[in-house]
Amino acid sequence: MYIMALNVAKDIPNVNVIDMTKPTAGCLHDYSATPADMKNLEGANVLIINGAGMESFMSKITSQMPNLKIVEASKGIELIKGAGDTGDNAHVWVSISNAIKQVQTIGDQLALLDPNNAPKYKENSKVYIKKLEAQRAKMHLALDGLKNRDIVTFHEAFPYFAKEFNLNIVAVIEREPGSEPSAKELAETIDKVNSLKVKALFAEPQYSTRAAQTIAKETGAKVYTLDPGVTGPMEVDAYINMMDSNLKTLQEALK
Q: Residue 161, SS3?
């Protein structure tokens, strides 16, 4: 959300974009708003969130700051159900098509909330969306012809990405980061990887690869890294660079 907002508010002199959480926080499922966060928000006009249930701390913010304007970037995006009873999967931005919709929503909403700068928000949104569309086209060109489309991931961050590029997630090992799979779950996954002849296991740079390494050892599959873009450099092209890195990884892993 911060990278999107940086692009939408780029070069608007009286607009200051602040990342409320530390860039190392990762996905915000279990994040609690700190006193420092609340202090930051006291001086804010607008809070941009992903929405779709990602920010579990929002009730605290809306109850304490009823006048703070909230921009929910995932509004209007069709959500994929999470596993079991976990509700909707909130990782919508990992699909470039959804990221484009989120940028459009942020731009439109900021233009409404700050009409003096509306033309600039709209122009910035258009420029950034063109870049995202070019990256999406590049990835489709490279990935659409791949015959091998089965992958195993280690967090439920990739269903939207898989849907975008027609990849088949045959197993998710740690549904929530840090929730190590049981011996039974590991054994089932090893069987599945062997029977489907899955060649690629995708860990994430934010989390331990211990379970992935265990499965790789038992199956001969190789561990690669796919990045859902929840940590990393705080610069305007960070999302596009991360997607480009994911493209190179997929090309190597699935060739």
A: helix
Which tokens is 160 given? Answer: 């939207």
Can you spell out the DSSP letters for 18-72? --SS-TT----TT----HHHHHHHHT-SEEEE--TT--TTHHHHHHH-TT-EEEE
Average pLDDT rounded to a whole number, residues 223-240: 93
Q: Where are the alpha helices (DSSP H) in the chain?
A: 2-8, 35-42, 58-64, 96-113, 118-143, 159-164, 183-196, 210-219, 238-254
Q: Which residues pair with 168 in a beta bridge?
A: 150
Fold of 142-254: Rossmann fold (3.40.50)
Interval 153-202: pLDDT, tens: 877 889 999 999 999 998 887 656 556 778 888 898 899 889 888 889 99
The CATH fold assigned to 2-135 is: Rossmann fold (3.40.50)
Written as one letter, the residue type at 159 is P
CA nearest 192: which of 156, 164, 150?
A: 150
Domain boundaries, the chain: 2-135, 142-254
- d(Cα 151, Cα 11) in Å, to the nearest integer? 40
Quote the CA–CA distance of 228 and 239 in Å, as a whole number. Answer: 9
Q: Which residue has the tokens 């258009």?
A: 126
pLDDT for 109-132, tens place per residue? Answer: 999 999 999 999 999 999 999 999
- CA 206 to chain CA centroid, Å, is 12
Could you tell me the sign of the dihedral formed by the alpha carbons of 109, 111, 116, 120, in that order?
positive
